[in-house]
Amino acid sequence: MNDILNIGLVIADENEYSPLFDVFSDCEITEVLFGKLKANNIKMQVNGKTVVINAIRSGCGKVNAAVAASHLCENNDIIINFGFAGSIFNYKVGDVILGTCYLEHDFDISALGYEIAEKPNQEYVYFANKKLLDVFKDVYKEAKECKIASGDSFVSEDATKDFLKNELLCGACDMEAAAVAYAAYTYNKPFLSYKLISDGADEDATETYKESYDNKSDKLCVILRNLTEKLSKENFDF
Question: How much is the pTM?
Answer without folding.
Answer: 0.95
